Amino acid sequence: MAIRRLSKDNRLERSDRHSLATVSTLPTVKAMVDCFEKYLNLTIADGHASVDTVKTYRSRVHQFLSWCKERELYPALITQDNIKEYRKHLVDSEKTSPTIRLSLLAIKHFYTACLADKLVKDNPVVGVKAPREKREIGSTINYLSLEELQQIFNSVAPTYKIRGDKTRQVQVLRDRVLLGCMALQGCRSIEMYRANLGDVSESYGQHFLQLDGKNSIRTVVLRPDLAEEIAQYRQARRSNKEKLTFQSPLFISLSNRRYAQRLSRRGIGHVVDGYLEKCGLKHTDLERSISPHSLRHTAGTLSLQNGSSLREVQDFLGHADPKTTAVYTHVLSSQENNPAAKIEVNF
């Protein structure tokens, strides 16, 4: 790789004709991007990265390259100081720590790919970390109480925009199964999006649901009442003249244009948010904002409240690290064992 005279911030000195002449010796941005695309398909997750992961990494790298272009920085000559500048840019843009961490990870993979093909001499992201989050443990755990959860299930009713009694029956059962899987079984939205009818199985009287999660495939034991609802949901779809196979999506769109096609992740969020809004639970106050992911927190919290062990809930939610599950314990203990409440004084 040619050595060029650069300004302190890695920009070419415009008066240096020799440097401008040697730009052609650098790998082009296209060559680096092509190298990264091959890496995404063959190396990330041992060649089995999800579509969402690939899309996210590609998007984060594209944002970084756009930032480089705006500042006339050559991606092949980026330094660790440049990466820190980009981190500062993300901080100033009020990006959260997890968002910054994911961006740095994607860029790190980008340079790992380029380094393997000898397009760069080192990986400038190595050693650069995302800023620490300043938040209280458990502060992001928002969940529904048992009474609120019952209110959600009781609110499921036909949507009058949907024509035909059979389609309305499908909609009610679809929504009840979706809410049940997320709030009772702790399923993630992405797992619901990827689930197929063939992922539901039965053995010796027990019903199971195989879930394709973020980084692994896991199987949950279904509650008998939820398994029965799924059976009714499947039968309602058959009665509505839908041709079902093992690869048919578990959750479908009911719009006229996309009927029986896989319900999108946005669609799943729209369904859940609709019932939260209907019950007045979407935004209850400034300290508590319920989202579709809160249903998963609900499953974990209520399970612990009702006597399940930490290990049982860890397996139940598919947490690889027990520290992740322990956050729910912190939430409960802070409520039940508040030292201030033990001070016997009239206030």
UniProtKB/TrEMBL annotation:
GO molecular function, one term: DNA binding
UniProt xrefs under InterPro entries: CB, DNA_brk_join_enz, Integrase-like_cat_sf, Integrase_catalytic, Integrase_recombinase_N, Integrase_SAM-like_N, Tyrosine_recombinase_XerCD
Entry keywords, A to Z: DNA integration, DNA recombination, DNA-binding
Pfam families in alphabetical order: Phage_int_SAM_4, Phage_integrase
Organism superkingdom: Bacteria
Domain Core-binding (CB): from-to ranges: 30-115
Domain Tyr recombinase positions: 139-342
GO biological process: DNA integration; DNA recombination
Keyword flag Isomerase: no
Record-stated family: Belongs to the 'phage' integrase family.
Protein name: Tyrosine-type recombinase/integrase
Organism, as annotated: Waterburya agarophytonicola KI4
